[in-house]
Amino acid sequence: MPDDFERMWTDLAPVGRSATSGGYFRQPFASAERELAAWFVEQCAARGLRVESDDFGNVVGWWDVGDGPAVLTGSHLDSVLDGGAYDGPLGVVAALAAVDLMRSRGVVPNRPVGVSVFVEEEGSRFGLACLGSRLATGATSWESARELRDRDGVPLGDVVGGGSSTLLDGVGTFVELHVEQGRDLVDRGAAIGVASEIWPHGRYRFDFTGSANHAGTTRMEDRQDPMLTYAMTALAANKQARVAGQRATFGRIAVEPNGTNAVPSRVTAWLDARCSTDDALASLVDEITRQGSERAGRDGTSLSVTAESVSGSVAFSPALAADVAADHEGGDWPVIPTQAGHDAGILSAAGIPTAMLFVRNPTGISHSPLEEASVADCLVGVSALADTLDRLAR
């Protein structure tokens, strides 16, 4: 017998978990994430699901029933650095449990049903968010992706063979279940929500360059210190995002030569920006860049900005969202926007009708060891996903 939801969750809990912070380090193609990938294949085999993979590491376990356009569900198993337990794996475990629940109910779908795992969704290793789904849909070419490098300089092409993908051929609908990464459902008192849209978002590399010098002998007025330019730019990003009601975060920096007693020669910082519209995103990044460049002129430094990963706004089908949300015990599920990126957004942009289910997060915290979801709400999510797959596969 395949494992039930709680058993599966218990099995995954220790994999890649830090003994100090309690957070997870499940970076793509590293040991913890590969252990989870092997676990997924074993769980598919226990359920008699036919496993299919592509040249990029994406995997689908197929319940080969019926015919016609397939219904695909699933999520990802990788994490951000020191991330939470639920972001990604909840959607995979819930999908397997939903298949079990459908079978226990005697459901025989009229269309094939698949459970998917997309690789490198977080972009925590190779810097491009939703990399696996981008490659599977053709939104990103292997020729460009193979040159992406991790923090140690290892190119993606040295880690995975690459080539092509036919995993999504014949997929008619995609449904992704995910832990909510905010407090909307908590404030509404609802265990389950349905996505209406994904805000446009991007990652931008800011390279600040100056002149290395001695921290003690160099007068303050004689310095070309890129750290000062970066600091002002980070403050400007915070202010501009607050004023506009948007999101801007500098969460990662690298300093050269990174010495305590030296004025740095270079500061590289990565901006994560998210806005309610594509125009608002472009305007916000332009304004942050303008203010950073003006400060660079005063500091005697220079600034260049490179967009490393940008995803446009995604509006999920209102009709599909309304259908998924409607007519449940206790009333319709709320339909809400999300500011977080997901593989569902990539598949939707590729023309595959897509829906998302969210499971309430009582802390409202995500990308952190404090990310949470109760077992009771997770089981409601499993039932909600089974109901949705049943509807769509009929």
Instruction: Estimate the mean pLDDT confidence.
Output: 95
Profile the largest sheet.
9 strands, mixed
The number of helical runs is 11
Task: Estimate the strand proportion.
Answer: 15-25%
Residue share in helix: 25-40%
CATH topology of the largest domain: Aminopeptidase
* Secondary-structure class: alpha/beta
Low-confidence stretches: none
C-alpha Rg (nearest Å): 22 Å
Organism: Nocardioides hankookensis
Family: Belongs to the peptidase M20 family.
Protein name: Allantoate amidohydrolase
InterPro entries: Amidase_Cbmase (IPR010158), Bact_exopeptidase_dim_dom (IPR036264), Peptidase_M20 (IPR002933)
Describe, in plain words, how this protein is organized in 3D:
With 394 residues, the protein is an alpha/beta fold. The protein folds into two domains: 5-199 and 313-393, 3-Layer(aba) Sandwich (Aminopeptidase), CATH 3.40.630; 201-310, Alpha-Beta Plaits (2-Layer Sandwich), CATH 3.30.70.360. Helices cover 33% and strands 23% of the residues. The protein has eleven helices and 15 strands. The strands form three sheets. Strands 1, 2, 3, 4, 5, 6, 13, 14 and 15 form a nine-stranded mixed sheet that branches. The model has no long low-confidence stretch (mean pLDDT 95). It comes from Nocardioides hankookensis. Pfam families: Peptidase_M20 (PF01546). Keywords: Hydrolase. Belongs to the peptidase M20 family. This is Allantoate amidohydrolase.
